[in-house]
Design goal:
The structure holds two protein chains of two kinds.
Chain A (H helix, E strand, L loop, with lengths): L2 E13 L2 E14 L3 E5 L6 H9 L4 E10 L2 E2 L5 H7 L1 E4 L11 H13 L5 H14 L17 H15 L3 E5 L7 H16 L4 E6 L12 E6 L2 E6 L1 H10 L2 H6 L5
Parallel strand pairs in A: 3-8, 3-9, 6-7, 7-8
Antiparallel strand pairs in A: 1-2, 1-4, 4-5, 9-10
Helix pairs in contact in A: 4-5, 5-6
Chain B lengths: L5 E5 L6 E5 L29 E2 L64 E5 L5 E6 L14 H9 L2 E7 L10 E22 L4 E22 L4 E9 L5 E10 L4 E10 L2 E10 L5 E10 L4 E10 L5 E10 L5 E10 L7 E10 L5 E10 L6 E10 L2 H8 L5 H20 L2 H18 L1
Parallel strand pairs in B: 3-18, 6-7, 7-8, 8-9, 8-10, 9-11, 10-12, 11-13, 12-14, 13-15, 14-16, 15-17, 16-18, 17-19
Antiparallel strand pairs in B: 1-2, 4-7, 5-6
Helix pairs in contact in B: 3-4
The chains are: A alpha/beta, B mainly beta.
InterPro entries (chain A): AAA+_ATPase, ABC_transporter-like_ATP-bd, FeS-cluster_ATPase_SufC, P-loop_NTPase
Pfam families (chain A): ABC_tran
GO molecular function (chain A): ATP binding; ATP hydrolysis activity
């Protein structure tokens, strides 16, 4: 059992207008086996939290801490974090010219495990995981994300989640831009990863739609860089009915 | 860091305009997903800035000063005017670094250094001779198209002639290699003729090494039905200057694979041209270059479709890294009126690995007949940016491994087309070395 602990996290970015604070004291603890939904209006800092956990250089941590089983995550490089067991399914996965998915997946698996996967079982695992996510076999020979549609990119993020088997997965708006069929395929993949055990999940979403397919244990509502409210799954139902309006009138998003 | 910009996003839910500093490709709007992701993709957005189509030096966007068909060709140096650097043909070349190759005959500038020493290995059936200037075969495949090549033509003392006899059937293992080792910094001229007789099949590698200030003409004569691969590797010492005009003449139903590998040297200017002497000719031209800090690697190609039913494919890919690394690719394709049934496509891709490197890529396609199979070109210069690095690192891959993964993959696309096993290995190693030098 592992614990990802975020304590009083303050994060800012540099813009042309100067330093802009985005996260203003976020605290959140996720344990193995738990699924936390992070919801909130645009600009509330949800994606910033995801990127900060993964270590994107754009974000500056001004204060606070992120620890994984007591280890200081903020002191780690991006690749060290991944090897420590953190995984970020990106909102907009980038294209990597010249690198095939096959090559990429094997290199990533080797890096995460510290040794090359056994070729025969690995090829079988990849094929099976691709089939479950309805990814055509020919994608294995295509360059990473190159020419993939939005839905194909998201399915490949979940493919990596299933193959790399992290301790904690942060899914950054994996549902956005997906039609309902694609959403179901992706949600099935996430549920398989959760059911396989040993995973804590942070599910970042703008919409409640995905929560019909992936059941959160906890729901946190982000507004203006902080958690405005938290609760169980019932909070998601309330958001579905009411939207974010009641939060916005209390604390308007920065314009 | 990658360039980052503030962009305004209209929230479709309430129509309110808000702005957020954001990473390209990491906004919150699902609707902005697009298949090609034109802003953050390797072929769009800021990447385009490192790529130019003609600028203030002259010419227009993708249009040369005049038709390529009208360019002067002559064996005589005196026929060519002095190079000023403003010509379409020379506008990208740093003349000062040519070490006099452009000014032969002016103010006592000579071109009389010793030509590179030639060492030949290969199958017995393929002959390698050293011949004098008056050998009848000289001039059978080419004619200089610029002053530097004409100077070399006037000044070379001896030529090396490689002959693949008629119906010679070489395999991928039967590689004839000429190792040309530069003999110093005195400007020198060299001449090579590779001659594949009727229905001959074979591979010839020109391997340039050492230090030289060299102007070279390479004639590649491919008779009817022959199938010839010529690989020209420029892996000189850092101080070398090398202009190489490579003239390919393609016979009826002949097949030529021409590969340029530009790795080492201060200034390399390689100008391959292909002309067809009969219908049914098929030319594949591949190029691979890796420009480091301070290197100028220039590749100018010309495919002259003057007969019916010929095919050409051009694929050049280059990686650039370091301050002042400069790569130039110009791809001229001319489809003359009589060249009905022509099928041509040319492609250039550049991958810029660090700040301070620059790639110029200009495809030019002139078409004088509509009766063709196909004609197209593509050119793109992409940047290996921090977002790509972040993506790979976020999957546990260390930075140096990530960088190698990308460059290797990018250049492999060319390497695997060469289909000469012994060479593929060496080129992969060379790419690794270039990468290691940057770390």
């Amino acid at each position: 059992m592992s614990t990802l602990e975020i304590k009083d996290l303050h994060v800012s970015i540099e813009t042309e207008q100067g330093v802009k604070p985005i996260l203003k004291g976020v605290s959140l603890t996720i344990n193995t086996g738990e699924t936390h939904a992070i919801m909130g209006p645009n600009g509330s800092g949800k994606s910033t939290l995801a990127s900060t956990i993964a270590g994107h250089p754009r974000y500056t941590v001004d204060s606070g801490s992120i620890t994984l089983d007591g280890e200081d995550v903020l002191a780690m490089t991006v690749d060290q974090r991944a090897r420590a067991g953190l995984f970020l399914a990106m909102q907009y996965p980038v294209e990597i010219p010249g690198v095939t998915m096959t090559n990429f997946l094997r290199t990533a698996k080797t890096a995460i495990d510290g040794e090359a996967p056994k070729l025969r079982t690995w090829t079988k695992d990849v094929k099976a995981a691709m089939a479950q996510l309805r990814i055509e076999p020919e994608f294995a020979e295509r360059n990473v994300n190159e020419g993939f549609s939005g839905g194909e990119k998201k399915r490949h993020e979940i493919l990596q989640l299933e193959l790399l088997r992290p301790k904690f997965a942060v899914l950054d708006e994996t549902d956005s831009g997906l039609d309902v069929d694609a959403l179901k395929v992706v949600a099935e993949g996430v549920n398989r990863a959760i059911d396989a055990g040993g995973l804590g999940t942070m599910l970042i979403t703008h919409y409640t739609r995905i929560l019909r397919y992936i059941k959160p244990d906890f729901v946190h509502v982000f507004v203006d860089g902080n958690i405005a409210e938290q609760g169980g799954p019932e909070l998601a139902d309330r958001l579905e009915d009411e939207g974010y309006d009641r939060f916005l009138t209390v604390a308007p998003a920065t314009a | 860091m990658t360039e980052l910009t503030e962009e305004k996003v209209i929230d479709s839910a309430d129509g309110k305009v808000w702005s957020q500093g954001f990473i390209k490709g990491m906004t919150e709007e699902g609707e902005q997903l697009s298949e090609i992701n034109p802003e953050s993709g390797p072929l769009g957005g800021s990447a385009v800035k490192a790529h130019s189509h003609g600028d203030s030096h002259g010419g227009g966007i993708g249009i040369p000063d005049s038709s390529r068909a009208g360019r002067l060709t002559s064996y005589k140096l005196a026929d060519f005017p002095l190079i000023t650097g403003r010509e379409e043909d020379w506008r990208f070349t740093p003349l000062k670094r040519l070490r006099g190759l452009d000014r032969v005959g002016v103010k006592g500038q000579e071109l009389n250094g010793a030509a590179p020493a030639v060492e030949a290995t290969g199958p017995d059936a393929v002959t390698v001779e050293t011949v004098g200037r008056d050998d009848a075969r000289i001039g059978s495949a080419g004619i200089p198209e610029d002053r530097v090549a004409a100077a070399a033509w006037e000044h070379f003392k001896e030529a090396t002639v490689v002959t693949l006899p008629a119906e010679y059937a070489g395999t991928v293992e039967d590689v004839t290699t000429l190792t040309l080792t530069g003999s110093g910094e005195t400007p020198a001229a060299a001449h090579i003729l590779v001659h594949a007789k009727k229905f001959a099949t074979g591979i010839v590698v020109l391997d340039h090494r050492g230090t030289a200030v060299l102007s070279e003409n390479v004639e590649i004569l491919v008779e009817d039905g022959a199938n010839l691969t010529v690989v020209s590797i420029q892996d000189w010492n850092d101080d070398a200057v090398h202009a190489s005009a490579q003239h390919i003449k393609v016979g009826r139903d002949a097949k030529v694979k021409h590969v340029v590998v530009n790795l080492g040297g201060n200034l390399l200017r390689t100008t391959p041209s292909a002309r067809y002497s009969g219908p049914g000719g098929d030319v594949e031209m591949y190029g691979l270059y890796f420009a480091d800090a301070g290197q100028h690697l220039e590749q100018r190609l010309f495919v002259d479709h003057s007969t019916k039913n010929c095919k050409s494919r051009v694929t050049y890919k280059g990686a650039l890294q370091g301050d002042g690394a400069h790569a130039v690719w110009i791809g001229d394709v001319l489809i003359r009126k009589e060249a009905e049934g022509t099928d041509t496509y040319e492609l250039n891709r550049n991958l810029i690995l660090t700040q301070g490197a620059r790639a110029d890529s200009v495809p030019n396609l002139e078409i004088e007949t509509g009766m063709i199979e196909g004609a197209g070109h593509a050119s793109a210069t992409g940047r290996f940016d921090d977002e790509q690095l972040f993506y790979l690192q976020s999957r546990g891959i260390a930075e140096d491994v990530a960088r190698r993964l990308v460059v290797r993959g990018f250049l492999n696309e060319v390497i695997q087309h060469i289909k000469v096993p012994a060479l593929e290995e060496r080129l992969r190693d060379a790419v690794e070395r270039e990468l290691a030098a940057s770390a």
